[in-house]
């Protein structure tokens, strides 16, 4: 493993043997570069602070109870945690231990972790691997095996079940029989975990290269029903064989897997309204409208930022527009302008939705949207009122007052989008006078 000069220097002035642990070591053994450098040692926080006082390193507390320090210097930043054992409230599934005891035994520290593949240590000075639980073999065999009895590990911290799903997606590892069964039995522990932590793990899971496999595991273990019950309701919902290879749920899985990074969430939820539409209407014609409402409820429940909530709702609601690819040019232009803030993502979602069918490799609708957008840009079409060559003061000077100013600007924008009016100052001012009556 390549060790930075700063880490070498830190190890030499440390009060005990210093180890890299967790993702950095696991990824090194997988041949993958990482910037995630977690450190561990038998040194207690006060001992570390004393040893580094006056050195080139700055130390500050991160979590005193857990023995975690932030050490920075030489242009790098490390998180150091003292070897410890943890005790959790029995059967609670919460993420934080209620009792922490520091230890000098590396194997005790090892067993408080979640999976053996994350419990491999790298001695910074000797450059040797320390592997008390056989994690190296698990990494080689791509296995997720808990450091202790899986029921104990998951009972202590329900978030570890989400991490199991995430590592299947991001690492391509497979859980062993015991871990899978324990996750299924203890999936209810997720109700004790904060929505924010579940959201963060879901986001990380969505970025993995083995997403379909991970989502299938989430379904089989009950995780999906626990965190996204509305989506899980789409299981076994049949779709027309001429247009879909998968049921509604697996189509969502494959669409999310094929989606680019910035639309993964919307891709997963884009058809979330199909089950509700089928139950209420006996068909799926209005699933985008139902789904937009549900997507908003889901993203609010998982505490996503307001911008993500609003964007996801729009993408889900609009992804079915012009399904037959025969909308007239002026309607396409209005659609593009109306959704201009997210049009790039919307086009990407429409295209990915087609790929997610398992049947189609192209998407005429997405091509039409993109071509329309390109033409509008070439024509320097204004997409918002702010893009117009006139502003509210110009319209006010023509005699418009109050709300009529905004209405006049909106009418100018609509005619510019349709291509009936050039976005030139004089042309817009002449048209404003003509539109005065329509602004009433």
Mean pLDDT: 93
Distance between the termini: 73 Å
**The CATH topology of the largest domain, please?**
Beta Polymerase, domain 2
CATH superfamily of the largest domain: Beta Polymerase, domain 2
Strand count, sense and closure of the main sheet?
7 strands, mixed
| Structural class by sheet pairing and helices | alpha+beta
- The percentage of residues in β strands lies in 5-15%
Strand order of the largest sheet: 3-4-5-2-1-8-9
Q: Which second-level CATH architecture of the largest domain applies? A: 2-Layer Sandwich
Radius of gyration: 28 Å
Number of helices: 23
What does this 3D model show about the protein?
- The chain is α+β, with helices and mostly antiparallel strands and 440 residues long.
- It has 4 domains: 1-141, Beta Polymerase, domain 2; 146-227, Hydrophobic Seed Protein; 258-376, no CATH class; 385-439.
- The chain is built from 23 helices and 11 strands.
- The strands form 3 sheets. It has a 7-stranded mixed sheet with strand order 3-4-5-2-1-8-9. A two-stranded antiparallel ribbon has the order 6-7. The chain has a two-stranded parallel sheet with strand order 10-11.
- It is globular.
- The model has no long low-confidence stretch (mean pLDDT 93).
